[in-house]
Amino acid sequence: MLTSTLIIFFLLLFVVGDLSINTYDYTVILEGHAFEGWSYELKNIHKLNCLLECSKKSDCLSVNYNQKDRVCQINKQILETSSVENNIIQAPEFCYIERSKYTILQTY
Fold it and tell me: What angle, 0 to 180 degrees and rounded to 10, lies between the N-to-C axes of helices 2-16 and 47-56?
C-alpha cells in the first residue's frame, strides 16, 4: 500500500511540475559522466521511470541517464566496487546516479 501511495505521489508531482530526485534513494554522483560497462539499456524512458525500474531490480546499483535521448542504462556496479574495465567516463549528455536509502523530492 505504501509503495502504491508513493508511486501515485511521484506521478502527481510529475504531472504538476518537473520532478528531481536528488538524494537518498538515488544520489546524483556525476553530471556529464557515465559508468562504462552497463548491464542493459532502456530507451524512450523518463528519468523517474528509469529510477523506478532500477528500484525493482535487486542487482541494480546505479544508472546512467541521458535526458536528451531518454536513455536509461542499468548498472550492476557502483564506482566504489568497479573493476579496472568498468569505470566512469566523460559523457556530457549523461548523468551517473547511484542508489542509496532514502528519497528527497524537489519540484520546479
Answer: 170
